[in-house]
Design a protein that fits this description.
Oligomer: single chain
Radius of gyration: 29 Å
Strand order of the largest sheet: 3-2-1-4-6-5-7
Number of domains: 2
Largest sheet: 7 strands, mixed
Helix content: 40-55%
Order of helices and strands: HEHEHEHEHEHEHEHHEEHHHH
Number of strands: 9
Bound molecules: guanosine-5'-diphosphate, magnesium ion
CATH superfamily of the largest domain: Spore Coat Polysaccharide Biosynthesis Protein SpsA, Chain A
Distance between the termini: 39 Å
Structural class: alpha/beta
Number of helices: 13
CATH topology of the largest domain: Spore Coat Polysaccharide Biosynthesis Protein SpsA, Chain A
CATH architecture of the largest domain: Alpha-Beta Complex
C-alpha cells in the first residue's frame, strides 16, 4: 500500500520532498468509542502539520462498541488482530505498518499529539526508540490514578531500571516512536500490558539508542482497560522472568551461603551468640536453606544457559565465567567427591554403632551433614549432565 492511498493527499508536496521518512501511527483500541475517532483525526492532523507522509492504523481485537467503524470513518486503516491483549494488538499493528517510523499511542485521547515533532526530531537525530515522558510533560489532574503515579509506576519503573539499567524515567508511557527497521531487534512477544515493559527492556538489551521526550498526559475518554493488580503483576512477572540472575542466581547463592554457614558452624556442637543458644534445630534450618539454595541456583544456571542458547540474551560476564569454569567432568568429580564425603561420615556413624554393640546412638549432627553432602553431591552430578546437554547446544549455535 502506498501512503497517498491512505487519505493524506492534502499534505503539501514541498514538505513531502523535504522529509523523506514515512510514519505509521499505530493505535491499539479496545472499546474506545468515546475517543477513537477524535484521536485518529488528531493523529492525522499532527502528521500533516509535521509535513510527513503517513498512515494511521487502528488495531482492534474484540471491541463490541463499534470503535473499528468509527475509526475507519475518521480515516484510519483498521487492522483486526486475532489474539487478545494490548501487546498482541500492537504486534498485529506493527506487522501491518509500512512507515519508516512507527509512532505508538493510546486510542483514548490521553496523549497529546502536539509532541509528534519532538519524537520525529529525536528519530532523525539517530535514536532508535523514543519514549514519551509524562513526568517531563504536563499531567492533567485526574489523568493518572494516585496509586499508579505514586505506587505502581515508581515500583515497576524502579525495578525495571534496577534490573535492566535502562535509565528510562517513564517506562510505562504509551506514546513512543521507533524506527521500523529496529522492530526485529526488539523481539517482542508479550501479549498483554507487560508488552510496554518488554519493549523497553529488549531495546536496552539489544543496545538500541533510546531517547526520551516530554509528552502531555490528559484525562482519557471512556474507561481504562488497565486492571491495576493483574496487569501490575504481569509487568512484575515479566521483569523477574527476564532476569535469571536476579530471580534465581542471587537468591540461590544467598540461601546456599547462609545454609552452608549454619551447617558447618553447628556441626561440632551448639553455639552461643549474644546469649542465645543455637543448636540442632538451627542446623536443620541450615540443611533446608542449603538444599533450597542449590536448587534455585541450579535452575538459574539452566535458565541463563538456555537464554543464551535460544538467543534471548546475549552472552554476558556470568555466562562467560561459567563457561570457562564449567566442564562436565569437573561437575561429576565435585559431585562424586561430596557424595563420598557424606557416605564416609555415615559409614563412620554406622561403624561406631556396630562397635558399640548396637547401643544407643546420638549422632544427629554428622548424620544431617552427611545427608546434605550426599544429596548435594547427587544434585551437582546430575545438574552437570543437564547443563552440559544445554551447553552443547550453545556451542553448536555459535
Ligand atoms: N486492541 C486492543 N487494545 C487494547 C487492549 N487493551 C488495551 N487496549 C488499548 O490500549 C490503549 C491503552 O490502554 P488503556 O486502557 O488506556 O491503559 P492505560 O493507558 O494504561 O490506562 C487504549 O487505547 C486501549 O483501548 C486490547 O486487549 N486490545
Ligand atoms: Mg490510556
Amino acid at each position: 500500500m502506498s501512503f497517498t492511498e491512505t487519505g493524506f493527499g492534502s499534505v503539501p508536496t514541498d514538505s513531502l520532498t523535504a522529509v523523506s521518512e514515512t510514519v505509521s501511527v499505530v493505535l491499539p483500541c479496545l472499546n474506545e468509542i468515546a475517543s477513537v475517532a477524535d484521536v485518529v483525526k488528531e493523529a492525522k492532523d499532527a502528521l500533516c502539520r509535521s509535513g510527513v507522509d503517513g498512515e494511521v492504523i487502528v488495531v482492534d481485537n474484540g471491541s463490541t462498541d463499534g470503535s473499528p467503524d468509527a475509526a475507519a470513518s475518521a480515516g484510519a486503516r483498521v487492522v483486526k488482530e486475532r489474539r487478545r491483549g494490548y501487546g498482541a494488538a500492537y504486534m498485529g499493528g506493527f506487522a501491518a505498518a509500512t512507515g519508516d517510523v512507527v509512532v505508538m499511542a493510546d486510542a483514548d485521547g490521553s496523549y497529546d499529539f502536539g509532541a509528534l515533532p519532538l519524537f520525529l526530531e529525536r528519530i532523525r537525530a539517530g535514536d532508535d526508540l523514543v519514549m514519551g515522558s509524562r513526568f517531563r510533560g504536563r499531567i492533567e489532574p485526574g489523568a493518572m490514578p494516585w496509586s499508579h503515579r505514586h505506587i505502581g509506576s515508581p515500583i515497576l519503573s524502579g525495578l525495571l531500571n534496577l534490573l535492566y539499567r535502562t535509565g528510562i524515567e517513564d517506562a510505562h508511557c504509551g506514546m513512543r516512536a521507533f524506527r521500523r527497521s529496529k522492530l526485529d531487534d526488539m523481539r517482542l512477544r508479550m501479549p498483554g500490558m507487560e508488552f510496554a515493559s518488554e519493549m523497553v527492556v529488549n531495546a536496552a538489551r539489544a543496545g538500541l539508542r533510546i531517547g526520551e521526550v516530554p509528552v502531555n498526559y490528559r484525562v482519557r475518554g471512556g474507561t481504562s482497560k488497565l486492571r491495576t493488580v493483574p496487569d501490575g503483576w504481569r509487568h512484575l512477572r515479566f521483569l523477574m522472568l527476564y532476569s535469571p540472575t536476579h530471580l534465581f542466581l542471587f537468591p540461590g547463592l544467598f540461601l546456599l551461603a547462609v545454609g552452608l554457614i549454619l551447617l558447618v558452624v553447628l556441626l561440632p556442637g551448639p553455639v552461643v551468640v549474644l546469649g542465645r543458644l543455637f543448636d540442632i534445630h538451627v542446623m536443620v534450618l541450615g540443611a533446608l536453606l542449603t538444599l533450597i539454595g542449590f536448587q534455585v541456583l541450579a535452575i538459574g544456571l539452566y535458565a541463563k544457559t538456555l537464554a543464551v542458547t535460544l538467543r534471548l540474551q546475549p552472552m554476558d560476564r556470568t555466562q562467560r565465567m561459567l563457561r570457562r569454569a564449567f566442564s562436565l567432568e569437573r561437575g561429576l568429580a565435585a559431585g562424586l567427591a561430596l557424595f563420598i564425603i557424606g557416605f564416609g561420615v555415615d559409614f563412620g556413624i554406622a561403624a561406631r554403632w556396630v562397635a558399640s554393640g548396637f547401643g544407643p546412638l546420638n549422632e544427629v549432627r554428622p548424620a544431617l551433614f552427611a545427608l546434605v553432602a550426599m544429596l548435594l553431591g547427587m544434585q551437582i552430578a546430575f545438574s552437570s549432565f543437564f547443563l552440559f546437554a544445554i551447553e552443547i547446544q550453545v556451542r553448536e549455535a555459535d
